Amino acid sequence: MNLSHILFTTISNQLKLKTFLLNEEKFCVKNLKTQIEFLRKEKENGYKNIKINESNRLSTENNQKLIVMYVINISFLKANTTIHVSDIKGNMKLFYSAGSIGLTGKQKRKRRIATSKLISLLLQKATFLNKKPIVLHLNNVNSYKNFIVNKLKRVFYIRLIKSFNQIPYNGCRKKKLRRKKYSKKFK
């Protein structure tokens, strides 16, 4: 291969990536426009069709695009890494752990390898999530948050990201040590 062929392929790959990102932004802008138009119409009508359920979720009769459809939950446990996909009512659709991709023992704690393999498996199996609004819940994901979000943002339409850190930074407070009593021995 000559130099011009290599340059052509690199430039074409960069253009494909840019067009993909532009199409994704275009989809998001269209979605926002429809939501703005819907809210303007409802404002003119006096918000008659908007109802608030007992669980304080906003539901509408005409437009279902304001509601989140699925929840992806990624958890880092002490000895495992898991991914749950459920609908908004809490019914589980998919569940994968590090053991389901062939990792065993201490390999399950290698977060970068486990998360990248789990996300690639999720992208293959969860085709029903494409272009639907998703909430992403991250449990105990400290330094890998950007890595996970960037991988999922390429394919899914992430509406909201919540991060829950349950492991304290410096651990639990240690128990107070008792002083030993010394008794003098007489000779």
TrEMBL record:
Belongs to the universal ribosomal protein uS11 family. It comes from Durinskia baltica diatom endosymbiont. Gene3D superfamilies: Ribosomal protein S11 (3.30.420.80). One of its GO terms (cellular component) is ribosome. One of its GO terms (biological process) is translation. GO terms for molecular function: structural constituent of ribosome. Its main location: plastid. SUPFAM superfamilies: Translational machinery components (SSF53137). This is Ribosomal protein S11. It is found in: Plastid, Chloroplast. Keywords: Mitochondrion, Ribonucleoprotein, Ribosomal protein.
